[in-house]
């Protein structure tokens, strides 16, 4: 194929721009990239950059802010700072939200071999960064800035938030066998290479990026901890909400079951169990109206399937909720899938009954196969998996 695009004259491109070639400017390549996720943090940017400048004097650094299109104009404010100081860059994501995903994208865009992640709201003590870098220099794979080791504290938390954080920490340590004193910390450092190896397995939802890194690496990383005092947020509000908590529980369930059970499946199965109650109630009412069993059972089945569909659309798949025509199309597909699921259920139960002669075991096996079928098929055909 011939290109009609005007090509730059060859001599405009330096002969060698690989790692061994001559530096193109007087700015040294960064040794440290600080990744800072932001959502509505405009008021904290100037003081944060001034503090980074102060504590990182003498270190070649860059900062990558990852902003999820904050309505308060965080990205514009960052561009203005970047005009004055090219070490400051901003990745602006549109149509996406999520702290963990933002951190991952920022780390993947880092130029330096070592990356730190910290919050923008001045709750993290940036004065720790040079010591974290030192610890990396003497063999740490991950350096965690901890609130829960001697010398650290979480004063910036309200009483209930502090208790919640500690409970989540204990749960994470017990279930996931993570030994860090603060696996929920949003302030840590690691080699970019380590992150690049783990990245394909990390979840982009929620707040638990460090926990996910430690759990996914399964104890293979040498963790060093440095204590600090978690301060009070300077400007703006915390973004931790119920969804973040659900997400955290989801990670615990998924990792504890080796990826076998997801929070989505548990939600789907719970909705299914509630649907059974609806089914029986509808059947009882139908029989009360002197309908024949076949008619009452048919109406009850349709009622329960519709109930399941609506509830799954509201809860299990709230992040890809269907509406309008897509809602109706999804409902029809769901009826078809559940119909086949019922056949799979009966078939599996019959087989299990011949094998074990235990009616209850066969019943459970059938229900389980039916649920897995309904889940797997509706996940791919109704609430389509994101690519
Ligand atoms: N890009 C992006 N997208 N950034 C986000 C998002 C998001 O959806 N949600 C939050 N952030 C940014 C905030 O702007 C802030 O810089 C940082 O992530 C932390 O968010 P906060 O809302 O301030 O969190 P917190 O102070 O309540 O929670 C702290 O403690 C948690 C554990 O107890 C943080 O340190 C968390 O990282 C930590 O997991
Ligand atoms: Mn905060």
Automatic annotation (TrEMBL):
Ranges in coiled-coil conformation = none
Q: Sorted alphabetically, which Pfam families does this protein's record hold? A: Glycos_transf_2, GtrA_DPMS_TM
- Tell where it localizes: Membrane
Domain GtrA/DPMS transmembrane stretches = 268-383
Name of the protein in its database record:
Dolichol-phosphate mannosyltransferase
Q: Which family does it belong to?
A: Belongs to the glycosyltransferase 2 family.
Annotated transmembrane regions:
265-283, 289-311, 332-353, 359-376
Q: What would you give as a GO molecular function for this chain, any one?
A: dolichyl-phosphate beta-D-mannosyltransferase activity
- Domain of life (superkingdom): Bacteria
Q: Name one GO biological process term.
A: polysaccharide biosynthetic process
Q: How does it sit in the membrane?
A: Multi-pass membrane protein
Keyword Transmembrane helix present in the record's keywords: the answer is yes
For whether the record's keyword set contains Transferase, the answer is yes
Any one cellular component term from GO for this entry? Answer: membrane
Q: For the Glycosyltransferase 2-like domain, which residue ranges apply?
A: 33-198
UniProt keywords (A-Z) are: Glycosyltransferase, Membrane, Transferase, Transmembrane, Transmembrane helix
Range of residues in the leader sequence = none
Gene3D superfamilies, per database record? Spore Coat Polysaccharide Biosynthesis Protein SpsA, Chain A
Q: Major location, coarse class?
A: membrane
- What species is this protein from? Ancylobacter rudongensis
